[in-house]
Amino acid sequence: MLEVLRRVIQEVNGARNLDAALSTMVRRIRKAMQTDVCSFYLYDKELESLVLMETIGLRTQAVGRVVLPLGEGLVGLVAKRSEPLNLEEAQMHPQFRYFEATGEERYSSFLGVPIIHQRLMLGVLVVQQAEKRRYDDEDEAFLVTMAAQLAGVLAHALATGNLLRPALAGGQAMFKGVAASPGMAMGEAVVITPPSDLNSVPDLVPNDQDFEVARLKEAIGKTRSEIRAAAERLASRISAQELALFDVYQQMLGEAALADEVEKRIREGQWAPGALADVVRRHVQYLERVDDNYLRERAADIRDLGRRVLAHLQEDTPSTPETYPDNAILVGDEISVAMLGEVPRDKLKGLVSVRGSSTSHVAIVARAMGIPTVLGMVDLPLPRLGGAPVLLDGHRGRLFVRPGPELKARYESLIAEEEALSELLEHEQDLPSATPDGYSLPLMVNTGLAVDANALLKSRIGGVGLYRTEVPFMITERFPGEKEQTKLYRDQLEGFAPLPVVMRTLDIGGDKDLPYFPIDEANSFLGWRGMRVTLDHPEVLMVQLRAMLKASIDLDNLSVLFPMITNVEEVDEALRLLDRAILELGEEGITVVRPQVGVMIEVPATIYQMDSLAKRVDFFSVGSNDLTQYLLAVDRNNPRVSSLYDALHPALLGALLELAQDAKRLNKPISLCGELAGDPAGALLLMAMGFTSLSMNAPSLPKVRAAIRRVPLSDAEQLLEEVMALDTPALVHAHLDNRLDEWQLSHLMPPRD
Ligand code: PEP
Ligand code: MG
C-alpha cells in the first residue's frame, strides 16, 4: 500500500490543476482499494453543505447536483462529526439518504473520511461497494492518509482562489484560458478524445444515449463476428477443448449480461467507451479476488474482450464529419493540427483546449484559418461539456458554457460590430500599406496550408514572408517524397508568382512533432529542433532542398530560410548542402537559379552574431515567437507562465531595435514573421525600428494595414522613443493603448474588458 500511496501523492502533486488532481485521486483510490465508487464532496461554507465535486462510479451528472446540508445523510454525518464512518450495510443506517441522481442504491458498503486541514473541515472522501464488504483497518488507514494529503492541496487551492465550484449542473459557467486566435463564436461543444486503452478511457457524458447504445451494439456485433471467424479459421488446427474457449467468448458477448450492464451504465450518463471500461473493470476486479483458478482466468478473457470491443468503438470515432454540428466548437485536452483537419471547415467555428498557449502551433494554424481559439484552459471540466451550448471569446480568452439570454444578446451585438468593422476595413485592402507621410512598408503573409494560397491575397501583399513547410508534413503519414514535395512547393510558388515566397526548411521538434518521426525529449524547446534535426538528417534536408529548387524552375521567386540557427557553422553546413543540391540538379540536366538565402533570428545567440551571419546570407527574418520564449525563459506553450510571455517586454523591444539597426548597418533586409507582426501596435513599433517588411497571418492584414495607413512614420518613431523609455511590459501596453486611443485607433486593438 505504501508504494501506491507514494505514487498517488506524487501524481496529485504533479497534476496541472485542482480538477485534474481530484480526478486522478478518486480514480487511483478506487483502483488501489479495488472498490466500485470513490467520490469527493467539498464543504461549501456559504451553503453550509457538502457538494459532490468529483466521482468515479456514481453518475457523472450527479456532480454539482448532490448537495447535502451538514449533518444530513452519511456524508453530512462524517463531516459534522469529523470522524470516519465505516458501514457494511449503509442502507440500514438511520441517517442513510438516497439520491436518485447518483444511482447509489446499488451500493451497500460505505466508508467515508473527513478532510481536515488545520482543524478546519474541508470536505469528505467516500468509497462505496456494491456487495457487502467490511472495509478493514488497512483500508481505513489508507483513505485517512489520502484525505490528509488532499487537505493540503485543497487548502492551497482555496487560499489561492483556484477552487472551482461545479457550476455546470444547468447554470451558466465561465472558464478562462489564453486568447490564441481572435474572434467570437457561438456554437455547440464537441469534445474530442484521442484513442485510449481500457485504463485510460476518459469519462464523458454522452449527448445522445441512444446513439451510444447503438454503437456499442454494433461494436459487440463486430467483435462476435471476428471471434467466430477466428474460431472457423482455427477449427481444424486446435483441440475441441481449446475451441470451446471461443464459445465462452461468444456467450460472454452474446449473453445479455455484459451488453446490458454497459447499456445501463450508458443510461446512467457515461459514454460507450467509458461505460465499457467501467463494467470490464468491475468484473475483472471481482473475478481476480475469487479463490478459483478457472474464474481468475475468466478475468483475463473479459479484459481481452473489453479491449476488442473498445477497439471497434474507437474505429468509428463518435464525431465523423457528417455528425459534426453546423457550428462545432471543438474542445479537447490537447488539439493537434491533424485533428483540426478532421472537421469540415464550414462547420468549425472555434477551438478550445486544456493545453497549449497562444504561440503553440495549433494556435498559429487556427489564426491562419481565422478560427477563434482559446488554449490553456486548465480548469475546463471536459467530461461534462459534450453537446453543451457555448460561447467562445477568442479576444479575451473566455468560454461561457450554457450562456444565459443577456450574455447571448451582448455577444450577438459584439459579433455584429466586429463583422461591420471587417467589412469597413475590407474596402481599403487593395490600397498600399503606406503611411500618410508616404513611407511604404511591405506586408507579407505566413502560409503553411494549401488553403492559404488564396488568389485574392495576391494583390494585397508583398509576397509570402514565411511558408512553414512542416505544416503539410504534419498531416501526412510519412515524410513526403521528392515528387510530392515538388508539387506542394510548386503550388505555393506558382500560386503567388511573381511575388517572392520565403520557404523555411523543416522546423520540427519543440511542439511540432511529426507522428511518424516522434522526438521525445524532456526539454524539447531546448533540444533537437529545426536545423539541428535536418543537419543530422541530410537525406531529409537534401530531398527538401532539391524539391524547392525544382519547384522554382522558371518562376525564380523562391527564397530559402533556415530555422533555429544558433551557430555560424550550421549556416555554412546548410549552405554547403544547398550548393550540392544545385550542383546535383545541374548534373541531372536541370538548371536552377540559386535562391536568396536567409536565416531566422530566433535564438538569442544570433543577436550577437549579426556581422558573421551577414557575410553568409542575403536576409534576416526575426522569429519573435521563439525569440520571446528564449530571451524571457518562458515556454511558449505553458499556460502557467503565459502571463509572463510578452513580445512587448522591454528586453524584447531592446533586442528588436538593435537587430533592425544592425541589419541596416550591414545593408541587409530584415523581416519579422512572428505573431508580433500581426499586432497593429507592434507593427507600428517595428516599422519605426526599421524592419523592412512584416509577415503575418492573412486575417491580421486588414488591421495592420489600417494602422499603417493612419499613422505617419514620424508619429510611429515618436511612439517608439516613448516606449523605449518604459521599464515594464505593463507600462508599455498601457502607453500603446493610450496612444492608439488618442489616435482613435483603439478599434484596431484586440478588445479587452
Ligand atoms: C517564430 O518563432 O517567431 C516563428 C515565426 O516561427 P515558429 O512560430 O514556426 O516557430
Ligand atoms: Mg520559430
Give the topology:
Elements: H1 2-14, H2 18-32, E1 37-44, E2 49-56, E3 67-69, H3 73-81, E4 85-87, E5 109-117, E6 120-129, H4 137-159, E7 173-176, E8 178-181, E9 184-192, H5 209-234, H6 240-254, H7 256-267, H8 272-289, H9 293-315, E10 328-332, H10 337-342, E11 348-353, H11 361-369, E12 373-375, E13 389-393, E14 398-401, H12 405-426, E15 443-447, E16 464-468, H13 470-474, H14 482-496, E17 501-504, H15 531-536, H16 538-551, E18 558-562, H17 568-587, E19 596-601, H18 604-607, H19 610-614, E20 619-622, H20 624-632, H21 650-665, E21 670-672, H22 680-689, E22 693-696, H23 701-710, H24 713-724, H25 729-742
The structure holds phosphoenolpyruvate and magnesium ion.
Phosphoenolpyruvate binds at residues 364, 466, 468, 507, 602, 623-626, 673-674.
InterPro entries: GAF (IPR003018), GAF-like_dom_sf (IPR029016), PEP-util_enz_mobile_dom (IPR008279), PEP-utilizing_PTS_enzyme (IPR050499), PEP_util_C (IPR000121), PEP_util_CS (IPR023151), Phosphohistidine_dom_sf (IPR036637), PTS_EI-like (IPR006318)
GO biological process, one term: phosphoenolpyruvate-dependent sugar phosphotransferase system
Organism: Halovibrio variabilis
